[in-house]
Amino acid sequence: MTEDRIEQFHGATIQHGPESDRIYLMKTGTADLSELPGELKAYAKEKGYSKIIAKVPASAASRFIGLGYSKEASIPGFYNGRETAEFLCYYPDSSRRTAANSEEIQQNISLARRMHDKPLPELPEGVSLVTCTPDNAEEMSALYREVFPSYPFPIDNPDYIRETMQTHIVYFGALCNGRFVALSSAEMDEEHANVEMTDFATLPAWRGHSLAVHLLKTMETAMKKRGIRTAYTIARAASPGMNITFSRAGYTFGGTLVNNTNISGGIESMNIWYTSLAVSRES
């Protein structure tokens, strides 16, 4: 796998590169929000990228919309359970604005919504759920390589897994007979009390056993203990399974990021699902 790079840009944090052919504004940081929307457009033009996707507080959205950006998705409560995050897009190449499989995407969203809060199946016999450790990094990276031909972050690199374990990511796994059969991760933004539930991967032989949803519920419990208030995911829009997983676990659909991410060998649209961890959904 190759990957786009993360770097500082005028005080903000961005990911960019030819793999996903885009700029992703991950955090506005200390950037001047009156200048940042235009600076991103200029940088995209310089690099020849066909998309900008900017994740910004709702209070800053008008600065971007005034320069031609438009909303694709949102996550209420993203910033400390109070302020919404808006996902705003700009397409230097207008042909990227429309998904060729838009009808399939809408069908998957509808299917997932019908599964909202459905009862969860039992964990298969012989499977246990664990928090991963640095000693597991080699086996984890091998599983990710097997499942994903390409991925937006270098999870096929055991050094990356070890490094992120020490900073802001907690990895979880499903074990059977001492071997990992499924993995996931919780990428925490502790400053803003949110977490991305991501990096779900299940070996082909183990698909259909709802391991992802069991991992997700374990992740939620762990994140609540850390004081995280909002959980979300950015799931492949063309994958019915992951969209059903999050809807079934009680998550709400937040929008589609069109032709957004290079994953599994090509650029795909991604769906956002979110939930509040601060208040029980049963209350």
UniProtKB/TrEMBL annotation:
PROSITE patterns: GNAT
InterPro entries listed in its UniProt record: Acyl_CoA_acyltransferase (IPR016181), GNAT_AblB (IPR022525), GNAT_dom (IPR000182)
Residue ranges of domain N-acetyltransferase in the record: 127-273
Family annotation (Pfam families): Acetyltransf_1 (PF00583)
Top-level taxon in the UniProt lineage: Bacteria
NCBIfam families in the cross-refs: GNAT_ablB
Protein name: Beta-lysine N-acetyltransferase
Organism in which the protein naturally occurs: Prosthecochloris ethylica
Originating gene: ablB
